Amino acid sequence: MHPTLRHPLRAAARLFGRRTAAILATAAGLVACSSHNYNSGYGVVWVTVTAEPGAFASYLVNLDSVVLKDNKGNSYTALATVEPVDFARLGHVAELWGSGTVPIDTYVSATITLDYTNAAVSVVQNGAPQAAKVVGTNGSAVKSVSFTVKFDPNTPLVLTSSYATSNAERLALNFDLPASNQINTATSPATVTVDPFMTAGIAPADTKLIRIRGPLINSSVGLGTYTVYERPFTDEASNIGSLTIFNGPNTVYTINGTNYVGAPGIDALSQTSAGTTMTTAYTTFQPTTTPTGTAGIFNSVYVLAGTSVETFYTQNLVGTVIARSGDTLTVRGGLVWGSTLSFKTGYVQYENTDSTVLVGPSTVVTADDDPSATGLSAQSISVGQRIDAIGTYSVSSTGVVTMNASAANSGAVRLLSTEAYGPLVTASAGSATIGLQSLDRWPASAFSFTGTGVTAAQDTSAASYHVNTGSTDLSGTAGGTPLWFDGLVNGYGSAPPDFNASTTQTETQVPASLQVSWGTAGTTTPFTGVSSGGFAVDLANAALASATIQIEGESIDLHSLPASPQVVPTATAASNSFAPLFALGNASGGISGFNSFASFVTALNSGVSATTPAISLQARGVYDRSTNTFTADTVDLVL
Q1: Can you give the pTM of this predicted structure?
Q2: For the chain: N or C, fewer Cβ within 10 A?
């Protein structure tokens, strides 16, 4: 199981399936289908969307459109296919929204429109999701919101005429939920005040896997490629361009409940029905050598297809198992979707009430991106596991959703990468015991572990959570060290171990966020020691309302540290597939992005004033407690 989906900062270290120059040359004509030639006057932009989720269990709104403005003041719509998007689920992955065709030009900004009319926003309270009331900055109900994001002046979006999108450019959108929302849990229900903060750039400020979804058009076993119509998120009808995806010898496929690796997978995919076979690929992006260095190809890490992924005819429920009794699973944070269902948010609906999933001997069980997970059955699904259940949906008179995934030929469950976190208690070669604090970002207190052990005496205990670490030896690690594990929960009735880890990480390896608030009034002096080398949050500032570092389930109050951490910019990545992004502004006045931290500091020094004080800060990166340094890939300063 590849950990890059859960922890994107590591993805750059294993850019998947690099090709020879000859293959790259072939790719230039195969990346996607387009009727435009080099003299058409039009270029193509691939728009990807990701988010920083913060404390939200669900953030389901409509993503309406993106309009590009050139350096002469002309505006052109790149995409206007309205999509319901749960941004809370885009923390570890980016989604390809679609391919936009616009005139060749130099573009300096993008205007994005979000529609909150039927928003479903939930926050986490006492270990469970709670629906929130959404309002604008004036306290009234919020509907459609448009805001402008300016590109780094030194790296505008330059589109050239493209044949088969060989010169297509990426436009990476990142919706910063902590920077965009103020949560007030003192009200009932909780109130979320919206003031959107999104950044945009021609290279993403992260190395997350890119999810590309759509029905199969055709495939080429010889070239190791397949082509899809782009149908993103939970869309069941639209085709927003087409794209060819490149596959390699290590690509993992799950097709109609069967796993393959490499060439046998693309061969099996080629034998499915074009036009009706739905596919979902999790890919890396490999730039080609163009003037900007951002055009390129998408290489698949793993692929889902056929009945192993949602289709126009299926109904799905994605969430976390918090309890099990016999063949009945209790699932928290369920996102239900299906084209035959009628929801106010399109094809999807978030369930704040715990849902029920029924499994049985006929349930087909597979594990995403894990060909070593064989012989799976309904007994492989235990408490704490994140799942995607496919079956038949019903609702009780009390509003509880039941997904019947037990029927022969139609019931299925995919085991999704799950994360366990807690401080180390003891360790030996291949094994570790932690004090479990969270599973799949839900607190340990949310789970009932009855029945998880071989005997009742061996049922899982949060205080002594046993992890199979495989080849990783933690015996030399100090007790109390915070640890994060990616992998799968061990089968129901099979503990110990409680968890089988595919990846083990310490604090300095896990993506962290620095979240600071100076209240609604803000401050004109948020930092100390501001320079092109970094800054520190002024903890003595009277306006400071809160300042924490969040590392998945861990929260560190800056006041508990010996000193305010030094925030330093990450070094510019050697690969053009990644560029740090530092931004400041607000939805009403515009948001400006910079790939250079020095340029950001210049804008900060002139932009923070009595009329535009600093309101909040959200930085994304990694934290090193030993040096008290926060290395930031992104910094978003709300004025």
Answers
A1: 0.91
A2: C
